[in-house]
Amino acid sequence: AEYMGERILDHRRRMKGGIVTAQKLGEMTTTKLTDIKIFHKSLSDVIKGVRSHKDNPTKFISQVVREIKEELKSGDMELKTVAVQKLTYLHTLGYDMSWAAFHIVEVMSSTKFNHKRIGYLAASQSFDDNTDVSLLTTNLFKKDFNAPSPFEVGLAISCLSNIATPDLCHDLVSDIAGKLTASSPYVRKK
Question: What is the pTM assigned to this prediction?
Answer without folding.
Answer: 0.75
